[in-house]
Amino acid sequence: MVLHHQLSPRKRPAINHPFVPPKIPKPKPKPTTTPTTTNEADQSQRPQNDVAEATAIDKMVSLLADAGCTLFHPSGPPCLPSNPHNFRRHLHRLFSSSSNASPRSAFLSGFSFYVQSSQNLHRVLLPSNRDGLGPATCESLVRHLLLVPPIQLDLQNMLLEKLPEYFDINPEYSGRSSSLDEDVARLIVNHFRWLDFLVDSYAFTNKLMQVLSICPLHLKKEIIGSLPEIIGDQNNKTVVDSLEKMLQEDSAIIVSVLDSLSNLNLDDQLQEQVVTISLSCIRTIDAEHMPYLLRFLFLSATPTNVRRIISQIREQLKFVGVSSSRTVQHRKLKGKSTLGNTNASILDALRSSLRFKNMLCQEILKELKCIERIRDHKVIDIWLLMLIYMNGESLQKSVEKIFKKKIIEGCIHEAMVDQCIGGNMELVQDYFPSFLSLSEYLLACKEQKARDFGIHMYSILFEEFVDTYSRQEILGALVTHVGSGISFEVTSALDTMVLLVSKYAHELVPLSSHINGVLDYLEGFSVENLHKVYEVFSNLAISARSSANFFGSSIANELLMIVRKQVTSPDLKYKKMGLIGTLKIVSCLVDANISTCPGPSQQANSAEALELLKTSLDSCKQFPIPLILFYDELVTMLDCRTVQPAIVDWIGKHVGEFESMFLSDLEGGQLSVKDLHCGLEGELMMNLDGDISPICLNILPLVSSSLQSSSNLQILPANFVLLSTIERLANQGSLGGIDALLGCPLHLPSSKYFSGDGWQSLTGKQKHVVCLSLYYATNWIRELLNAFCTQVVDGRFACTTQATREETIVKLLKRLRNLLFLESLLNNSLKQYPLSLPELHLHVEHSGFHPNLVGHVEKKNEHKKTYESFSSNNKRKDRKTSKASKDSGIDGKLRQPTILDVLKKAGVTTSQGTPNDDSSALSPKCRTSESADQHTYDTNKHILLEVSAVFKVLETQRSKFRPLLVDCFSIFTFSTNQDSCCPDPAAELPLHLYLLRDIRYKLDFFSPPSKAFSARHLGSPPGLSRVTLSQFLAKIKPLFLTFKKHFNAAVSILKEGNENCEEHWKVQSASAGNPDIPNLVLSRSSVCTSVFNEILHCFNMMLRLADINLDKPILTGLLEAFQPIKMQDSIFSGLQPIPLPGTIEYLYCGAYSFVEDVLDLACSFSFMLASEALLTLESIVTSILKFNDKLMEGNDRSTSMGSIEAVLPTLRSRLGTSSRKILMHNWDNENSENGVKRKGEIVQRILQIYLGNSESTSDLLHELAFSILPQAQSSKTTEDDCHGFPTLCPATFNIWYRVLHEENLAILNKLVKEVVHSEKSRAGVQLDTVEELLIKLQKSANVLVSLVNMCRTQDKVAVHAMAVKYGGKFVDSFLKVFDFLQIHFQMHNELIIQLVKELQKATRTIQTLCSEAKGLKQTVITSKIPSTKRSMERFLFRVKALLHTSPSECTFWMGNLKHKDLMGQVVSSQAYMDHQNDNLDENPEEPIAEEQSAGDASEEDREL
Asked: Is it the case that residue 305 has pLDDT exceeding 90?
């Protein structure tokens, strides 16, 4: 028994009791005085009644005496004869005599009078003596009389009627413990238990239930718990109905009821009724009774009702009601609260039930998998998963997968875990290992959302469990993560440590020895992770100092010892690690906001920090890369912390050497001496200040001198950033003290060297100098933009005047033109003279030698080897370059050449992309550099350089450049455009295009990757290392309207269709100081097309950002920026009510209308532009879905939710129409081999959108599979457009074929879910619904048959492979509906048989394809055969089982089939066949034949 309750023992006890003298009713004497109120008739009647009672009792006593029983025994209860069986037999004969019924009535009458006295009733209920000998160990007199059939029912009724007289005796409140013998009511009930028989069980049960309904609570529980022993297995229906009614009136009896019901032998119908009754009590019963109810329900679970039980428990059980705020008072309570005990009991009940029935675990997991809506998930789900997780290793993997899936989908969120763990330490104590194990799993997942959840679980576990053991276990698990060697896992573990240290630094100091192991893995960390490690230990060291204990001095000393050794190490790798650690310690020591110690100690901290800075600077003066890192770390420290003045002064003195190192004085804006440098003439370029400029940046002289010694120019950008940071700190944010640097000219090689003839006249060394000069100039301009853009941002600094701001804006726009000009020249120069550029920025992905970063390192080494292999005329110089590049942080010595390296060295052109990859597609940065044989140029021919083109060569080394910061994007808002001859008179669109591409690169980092894990997410891209997504969106929010303005300008120019106003670019370029390069041109149409594409793509990416729907102001601003001038009325057709202006649904409709108009325009320009517009429309619809889900998930459901849901069908219908328009558009200018064929992935996406947003996807699939694709299959050229889809041609046939298979399989899977859901429903499935599902399955099967049968006329191996692959998957999914088919075979046998026959046509063709593939050794197909064969064999036998178990007119035949080819011809020779697998075929039109013996056919040779 699982349900226990304190009931009386069912065995009758043998208890010695004191003598109770018998009470004999005697006639009462007449009173001496008669009351005046007494009637004389009453006085005469009373003696007569007394005489009658005495007479009846005497007869009863006489009858008992004749049977051998002495009722009036002087020593106690009645004395029974030694043979009770003879006693009962004698009474049975006496009372059963049909001739004389008076003894029975006389006995019952006398016994009724006798037991009117409570003492007499008590005597006959007590155990009796046998013949007066020995103790009272035998049954009582009443017990023996109840076993006499003629009087049993009367005695039962008599006793039940006496029962209410003793209701007032409650042993629970009487103040003393009452034994069974002293409680008459319990004695009466006890006599009904375990009777050998019941004469009239129905009458007795009804009477018992009537009395039971009025019993007091304590007696009611007693009787209910004894019902199985009182009435046995009879009248269960009456008992269940009565108990249900009583439960509705009083839920306090639930435990007794459950105990009783669990011991009744109920049939299936009553058992279901009992389960329903129990489920209805979940909401009403007290919490203390909940464990009993849960145990009963789970033990009552059967395969038919288990899902209903689980579902009801999940929905109705109120469990762990601690608020999500995790208030502190719960953790401070001493002792176990009632709520805690109740919750613990509930968990124990659930845990024991799950262990007792393994079926429950599987069904709970299935139930949780089927829940899709976020709001349907509850806290109890987490506990159920944890309980299953604890049950054993067999289901742990399944629990982990479900938990991760729910987290990624947003179904399980942090607040739910807070309710489970927060404030419930005593409750969670036993489950701590399981929670910790699950946290370990989540932190090791590839998905960022799962890892973030794991970090939160670690944090809350550390917060709740304050004991040393638990915290040591948590820290030990984190150290294990750090040592895993997996980059994303290491990063998340360190993030967790940083979080814990920021909250509990003082508490972690005594436990620091448990995390010291992290320092053993420093060599494998990236720069980003090194920052986190040293931040952890630096904060611990500072906290330890303030606590002044032994542990504190130990941590600080060990940390200082480690970083000093690393900084002074000659190995560049360790030097970088030491610099990061040193500056992290310094930032903690000199933070003015942290008052860890009194004044003298702060001075000591400053002195120690200065010593560390000097040591670090001295150690890296001769090494550019460490010095760059040193400067960048100082900038980070100054930006993020309030540093003590002494440190700022020291840094200011150091950067004061900038002028002497990098600048030269000018006289009248000209150089005083014009020397040749490496034989190159110099020239001042890009002078924005004219003759008044006092200085110039000395690039060319420094580059030429750097060939013989280390280059100072490599540290120029980082040094300038530090200089500008110090200047801002010293002057309240103003850069007025160094504003001459913004307009000063650059000393660069003469512009004549950038023409074709001039370039060819240069030697290799001179080309090297020219490339490096352009490279350093480019990065100088980038840092100028980063620094001075902070001066013109609205409201940033009050010290900047309006005139200064306007002057700075003009110069910034000119500098951006300079940057575009320089990068164009550098890209062209590197094409002709490949060179590995020195690093100027230490990207977080470049440092360290983590195993997961090998791919990135190899990629960079491939670039390096490619560049070095190009310069075959100067191999010695290349070796010097390669040797110098070893100092750039890439350890080339440890890397073995890859296959790609060998192929490239041999001159073989390799490609890692797909055959349909387009170099001009939407991701140009994914393309690698040009191969060695592609850089041969005609020396006598001038090459035109397109300024707006993507700089492909530079993109391969972009990570070495100094990044543009987010503040630079404010340049978008600086516009000098006036009403003029064209939409872009200042030629600013190329500048904005350059910035748009940089924004897109940064958005790539924040956008969710297409796969579960992407290498680009190993670290932050340049310029985003300390920027979160919300911060990034907040900074670019003011640019949304500017995007729209530039987009409109680009569209206007494209509409003009000519190259008017070409001189604008040249004029503006000349005003910026750019020299005139004849072969450097600008195509306005190319610029406008790129701007069009980039803005749409950025809009698309921002709508797809995971967090934008959480930030409604950002989302609203984005949608408002892309509203049409006039809203189309058609967009609201069919909507009721029409959205009001300003609402979110109105903005969505407006943005959709705007992009839809753009798509119509783009169709006249380019397939790529039209496809980008369509993808943007899809993103708008997807964003609406996500926003609607967020509204439904939140507690505050606004009234706009219904309007948003009403908008969705309209927009989806229009989206499907737009995709059809693109697919049916005739792209004449792009139907070449380099056109639609190379854009196959985009065609695939458009087709998926078309199918997914049609009114009926299944009908559309049927149309395409039966009419469109067969026509395209017969056409041989793209001009044969009889089917109406120009994008469906021989080049894209495979794509269409695959998409139709995928969508058809997706529809089948949805139908399978519908079938499973319908079978799960207890209400049953309507006949119309069943027929509708069967018709849908028939349509899906027809599509598969049509697609597979195309292989009979299609000779492409790829098509055959897809037919085998997707055909097998289709059959495998179809197997899941066979239970449904079998249930409904009787009513719909014709539909089901037709469905199987139709699907049989496809399986036969697939068998033939497999057979031919094996014979022709087509490995593309043979790799897919085993899984497909298994699915078809299972299908074969499921059909056989279906037809054998369900009677029908159709019978089944299975046997060996003839071997035929795809055309249906019998193959005469099978010599090429695999002898172990003779694939057979049959006429596909032949129906299922009669059943015969399968003979010797093997499993793989059988077919329907």
From this structure: no
